[in-house]
Amino acid sequence: MRDLFKRLASWLLVAASLSPLAGFAIEHPGLLLTRDGVESIRANLGKAPLFDDSLRSAREDVDQEIALGIDVPVPQDFSGGYTHERHKRNFFVAQKAALLYQILDEPRYGNYVRDMLLEYAALYPTLPLHPKERSYARGRLFWQCLNDANWLLYMAQAYDAVYEFLSVEDRELLERDLFRPFADFISLDNPQFYNRVHNHSAWGSAAVGMIGVVMGDEVLIDRALYGFEASVDVNARDNDGGLISTDGQGRGFLANLDAPFSPDGYYTEGPYYQRYAMYPFLAFSIAMENAYPDKLVLQQKDTVLVKATYALLNLADSQGEFFPINDAQKGMSIINSSLVTAVDAAYLYGEQDPALLSVASEQGQVALDQSGMAVALAIEEGHAKPFLKRSVILRDGPRGEQGGIAVLRDPDAGLETVFKFSAHGLSHGHFDKLAIAVHDAGREVLQDYGLVRFVNIEQKGGGNYLPENKSWAKQTVAANTLVVDGQTQFGGEYDASSRNHSDLLFSDIGDDSFQIVSAREENAYAGSVMQRTVAMLRSPQENPVVLDVLRVTSDSPRTYDLPFHYLGQVIHTNFSFTQDNELRVLGDGHGYEHLWREAVGEDIGTSATFTWLDVGRFNTITTATQNDDRLFLARLGANDPDFNLRRDPTLIVHRESDGPTVFASTIQSHGGYDPVSESAVDVPGDVDRVEVLLSTQAYEAVGIHWHGGERSLLIVAHREVSAGQNHKLGIGGREYHWTGPFHWVPLL
Amino acid sequence: MRDLFKRLASWLLVAASLSPLAGFAIEHPGLLLTRDGVESIRANLGKAPLFDDSLRSAREDVDQEIALGIDVPVPQDFSGGYTHERHKRNFFVAQKAALLYQILDEPRYGNYVRDMLLEYAALYPTLPLHPKERSYARGRLFWQCLNDANWLLYMAQAYDAVYEFLSVEDRELLERDLFRPFADFISLDNPQFYNRVHNHSAWGSAAVGMIGVVMGDEVLIDRALYGFEASVDVNARDNDGGLISTDGQGRGFLANLDAPFSPDGYYTEGPYYQRYAMYPFLAFSIAMENAYPDKLVLQQKDTVLVKATYALLNLADSQGEFFPINDAQKGMSIINSSLVTAVDAAYLYGEQDPALLSVASEQGQVALDQSGMAVALAIEEGHAKPFLKRSVILRDGPRGEQGGIAVLRDPDAGLETVFKFSAHGLSHGHFDKLAIAVHDAGREVLQDYGLVRFVNIEQKGGGNYLPENKSWAKQTVAANTLVVDGQTQFGGEYDASSRNHSDLLFSDIGDDSFQIVSAREENAYAGSVMQRTVAMLRSPQENPVVLDVLRVTSDSPRTYDLPFHYLGQVIHTNFSFTQDNELRVLGDGHGYEHLWREAVGEDIGTSATFTWLDVGRFNTITTATQNDDRLFLARLGANDPDFNLRRDPTLIVHRESDGPTVFASTIQSHGGYDPVSESAVDVPGDVDRVEVLLSTQAYEAVGIHWHGGERSLLIVAHREVSAGQNHKLGIGGREYHWTGPFHWVPLL
């Protein structure tokens, strides 16, 4: 039966390649859902439960809206407000209703879409710019062009699917009063929005391209693919502080496809925005594949969109939630509808990977087009295989030359470590080079704060980014990475950070019992070079442990802060601390102004242990310390007049150093607490102490002393990191010989 | 088939009643598991999956321990430490192994129990008092006699089940060197532990009684039932500050069964300790029912233990977790093993209520005795019916004369309000008369803090109560109830609080769409009388809303604080507030020293709205205010040197008043936020504002203005609260006539 689906898939592809050539009107429907696709779907209804369920669910949704009646209100609100949410819901529902019209051949769905579009055609010519003035590119239906582009991309599909249902007069009216002026407005009238390399422009160009395909308008398709000539103020910025100017990266859909995606499919803004951008990228690429296959849009950059789908799936934790890299709202996950389209498309237009079928099953729905039917049929036939998430290193940059992101995963436990050594990530990037985050079975052990925004909650600043996103979330101290002299990396300057990236030094993720990644950052702080090495290893008790070794060399005495953003209740420390009687902020600016200093640990000794309990699991940081180190227990929430920040805690290792210094720490999640049986299991964890045995310009050596008395050793090379390089090094009277950039001795 | 089980059950009861009379040795086994029970179990193995699963699970557990080998270490640790946990595990495992021996008739289980008991018999005579000196009644195996009693109660069952397996010599040795001195130690040597009315003494007397039954020792059984003569220092207190002296309430098991249980089965310490005490109460009562049915122990107080099981199930939230009334660790739930025994016993020895079967299914296990088999067979035969939790009012006090607890439940939504107007609750009581707590589908909307203790986590103060339990958790400001002049109720004096209780004024919980309970407290603050009326009603949109009206009358000007202990992130307020630049504590003593003042709202207007988001749900307090009121946003964590407290937030309405004043508020959980679709539903909720329309010595009238423009009205009488009383009252030019203590007008 597998072959049958391959045949189905290739037949669909062949059918698509028979579509008319550019310059001619396409068959309708002809975007994501094609006329041939409709036939194959109708032939298979009742045979693929996941498709049937998705169809039923869409039908219930649309029928409910039809019963409520159409409302096309005069625009007024920010996101979260009524008019915003109504227009947003309209384009989702119209697209669904139009697909239902095609699949079910029931005229009432066609009528609903026609009536709604005609109402828009009556309203649109009367609209000035949206009354909310916050955006650098105000829309007409919405407060920002971005949402207008969302509307057009969905409505293009709705129009395509009811095209044949409409009278010629209605079509002429819609194209004249609505679609053409709409497409021109978000492009020609808003070059600062349209001509960038940014997810905004991906949406804009895809939307213009989609409606261009429907209308058979080569001018619009050309404008979609390549942008248009327009002068842009090179210093202009968007609302997030991102530069408008694309700085020679080109413009239009193809440039947007090229620049932000790395050859590995990593999208430089991070998975939260990648998820958002995947839909327009895929929608227009597939539409072009179906309508103008000779343009080879889907095949661009070695079919990077299929790779990008895998990259996204790999950038989700064990529960399917995306790691909140850069600006990212937590909780966004692979069940998002944009991922449904991506997974189904990657299946049909990719290699029909059976592992994608298990992801689709987890999503619980499929797209209402031929890709969704192909996936649902294959699942029903039992072809699904597990999607196994392993450790992965994804390069960043258009050519993979701008560092990257590593995810180390313990295959048996749910422990995952994200290590970021990427480019800045455009306007949604954070100043957190060499940051780590640790997750355990979907729980955050060391968190990345994410963004400071309540997306679509109008009561919180119109649902938009809040001031603390810039003053806290983007700052270096908000991340689990080193802060030098209390300053944010690159002085918090977007331009400087955007010109630089960290570099991968070496990695070895092939052995489940010991995985290692090492990266270097030379530009974040003038005069300082940082190398961070992150390993996931096994204790003698076979429990996974993260070893984190950060070495910094500076050209003058510096003050260093290494925050560990834990979550939960303090259970045990091996040092004493003094609570402050009045709480003051930890510092001025660079995010420190948001941290209340709750307590200070002093006289730390040579290894500090910090154990906390969170959601039934114990976690311990054990870090090699120097006697003058101070440990700050701090909590977020200062200078937060509108209570926009969570009151999350952090532990900061504070060190003043004249010379090179090493922060070596283990992080472990262990044991657990059950409030029903009231039993506590393995509160201490496996690590007794961590010790820096040696630190030179060429090597560092870190020892782990386990509670059972065993010792392990990691040696990392700084200078000679090639795989074939032989090394020898004496430590404590013993000589070690090895080949390659690191040497791990599990039991000394 | 139902009849078959009734027959089985009554046959078992009849069989039990044929057991030997007092003064003769009983058949073995003869406690919870009887010889006849063993036969019926063996006959039904393989027929009742839930029993078979429970048996398999017990077998896996015990086999694993047998493989590990027996360890009976010299006592050394607090709870959470190795020796404590090992001895605790030993008695659990030995009891299970002995039951397995009976059910499976495999000698290796008998050998295991024998060998372990002989090791204890060798160790016990050598033991001094436990080296940890914290307890008012130190044990020998454990740091407190309470745990020694736990050990004896389980080991008595283990001994009973292997009694026939042991040689006469072994039995003599065990009784001489272990069981008799053990029973004497926890009773005769520790009257301050044994002769009280307290859960400690329930355990103590039940344990002594159980071993007495096994050994056929009437002296011990008598001592168990009635205690023994001993002089007690009337001022002596336990480690929680509770008085040792029982003050005429009697002593021994029967007194413990009488005094703390109300006729409704409410246990005055609250459900957390009731759950803990249920096991010894049931175990010894059932043992007596089986061995000495003429003593009618199980039938005491109208079979209160069966009522108590229902009370416990009704004091759990919609997810089965107990409301944390008084000292209570959150997360304890009806799946606790103690509740398994209780539910199975209440089924077999009660009325064979099919609703209990669905609870047993939810628990996922049954007791390894005839009650467990009866339940499992009945479930397998399909007799289970849903256990519907409705609103309930449980009286407190031995005769139901000391106030009580109400739980108002909306039957369609998951909203539940707990209202406490009970007695103090012995040494585990809190000073929180008239407190409320609100839960929504298992989530805390307004929380009761619970206790400050990490039970069995040795690293946190030996797993014992922490100082902040007294300085915070027990204090009035820690609860959702009124604080007068910044003082805790009864000046924080246990004795005074224990002598007093609140009183139920009136209630009507018969109508799902409007339920109401009103209670009065006259003693908590000298010169102040408080009446709180809590209603659960429906908005015009049919959403459940809590209306909370608290009237206080004092003999002089006072300052009032009404805290609302919410959880989550602030989303919207209709008032402005100013954040403090440095955090100071909110006050001195009475719990205020633990609260950081984060911000102050001023110029509040006449109705304050406070909306927060927690775990995907919006919640709003709307409270009628006076213009001089201040609203404190505070956060827990000050004066907490060991970080024992959660950093939870609170909203406090602060009012200075010369005369009587009313705090009228609505609390609603509404709408929700989905981070995957990023959609926010119903952020504002239904309530626009709350207004006190009238407040006299006889009546108060509160209006709710809904967002849709509708208005509702509640009038509450203070003086004439009888059901048949006719009232008339003019408000705003309109006259209202009604009968009974309250008048609810859903739409004015």
Q: Can you walk through the features of this model?
A:
The structure is a homodimer of 748-residue chains. The first copy, chain A, folds into two domains: 2-380, Alpha/alpha barrel (Glycosyltransferase), CATH 1.50.10; 392-669, Beta-galactosidase, Chain A, domain 5, CATH 2.70.98.70. The radius of gyration of chain A is 27 Å and the shape is elongated. In chain A, the strands form six sheets. In chain A, strands 7-8-9-10-19-16-15-12 form an eight-stranded antiparallel sheet, with no helix packed on it. A six-stranded antiparallel sheet of chain A has the order 6-11-18-17-14-13, with no helix packed on it. A five-stranded antiparallel sheet of chain A has the order 1-2-3-4-5, with no helix packed on it. With 748 residues, chain A is an alpha+beta fold. Helix content of chain A is 32%, strand content 24%.
Architecture blueprint of SSEs:
Two copies of one chain form a homodimer.
Chain A: H1 2-17, H2 35-44, H3 49-68, H4 82-104, H5 107-123, H6 145-162, H7 168-186, H8 191-194, H9 199-215, H10 218-226, H11 252-258, H12 271-291, H13 300-314, H14 337-349, H15 354-363, H16 370-380, E1 392-395, E2 404-409, E3 415-421, E4 436-440, E5 443-446, H17 467-473, E6 483-484, H18 494-498, E7 503-511, E8 514-521, E9 528-538, E10 544-554, E11 558-564, E12 569-573, E13 577-579, E14 595-601, E15 607-614, E16 617-624, E17 630-636, E18 649-657, E19 661-670, E20 672-674, E21 679-681, E22 687-695, E23 699-706, E24 711-717, E25 726-731, E26 734-739, E27 742-745
Antiparallel strand pairs in A: 1-2, 2-3, 3-4, 4-5, 6-11, 7-8, 8-9, 9-10, 10-19, 11-18, 12-15, 13-14, 14-17, 15-16, 16-19, 17-18, 20-21, 22-23, 23-24, 24-27, 25-26
